[in-house]
Design brief:
This protein is mainly beta and 199 residues long. It is 9% helix and 36% strand. The strands form 5 sheets. It has a 5-stranded antiparallel sheet with strand order 4-5-6-11-9, covered by helices on one side. Strands 8-12-13 form a 3-stranded antiparallel sheet. Strands 1-14 form a two-stranded antiparallel sheet.
């Protein structure tokens, strides 16, 4: 019997806008076919989803929404493009030889009545990603070409949010462990469930 851990995060579907075709004899409207927008590639790593994206976790001070998560081999074409564009490097991370670059689209919001300031390290302490039972490290990695930019919408490291302010941006991690499931924890509160299936 083999135990398989299944993830519980799912991709949401978005649709194309309606295109209008106007003819000489009169106006007619044609609906474009529904086209799924890729919000994750978890199935590539054997993870099955059952929750729609986006997902949000919040408390009295801070809100986190995950819109998209893509896992790339660290030396893949996609990862190299992101690394070259934003300056993601191995140095400065806990992991010496990461296997994967994890690219996320997120929204963070200040739900408190005071200023909220921090960096990738503070975000990592609030929001933790996990993929296996050994709790292998999913480490943040900084965009070296944009480290001095606060509230950068392309590749965030530092954020500075006034009360009620929110920021939608992209944030990266590195990882070298296995993929048994996917879960998010916000201050120790587990967002997703893990299903164990025997076969």
């Amino acid at each position: 019997m083999k135990t398989v851990m299944k993830v519980t995060l799912a991709a949401t579907m978005m649709f194309c806008s309606i295109l209008g075709n106007v003819g000489a004899a009169g106006a007619s409207t044609t609906k474009a076919p529904a086209v799924p927008v890729m919000t994750d590639n978890l199935s590539k790593y054997g993870l099955k989803k059952s929750i729609e994206l986006p997902v949000t976790m919040s408390d009295q001070d801070f809100s986190y929404t995950l819109h998209k998560i893509m896992i790339y081999d660290f030396n893949s074409k996609e990862a190299k493009t992101l690394r070259d564009k934003y300056g993601y490097q191995k140095s400065g991370t806990v992991l010496v030889n990461p296997k994967y670059l994890i690219w996320t689209k997120i929204t963070i919001a200040n739900t408190s009545n005071k200023n909220l300031y921090g960096s990738g390290g503070q975000l990592e302490s609030r929001i933790r990603l996990f993929f296996d039972n050994s709790r292998s490290i999913v480490d943040t990695i900084g965009p070296m070409k944009h480290m001095g930019k606060t509230n950068n919408k392309d590749a965030m490291w530092t954020f500075d949010l006034d009360p009620g302010e929110k920021l939608t941006t992209y944030f990266a991690y590195v990882y070298e462990g296995e993929f048994d499931y996917f879960s998010i924890q916000h201050f120790g509160k587990q967002l997703t469930e893990k299903y164990v299936v025997k076969e």
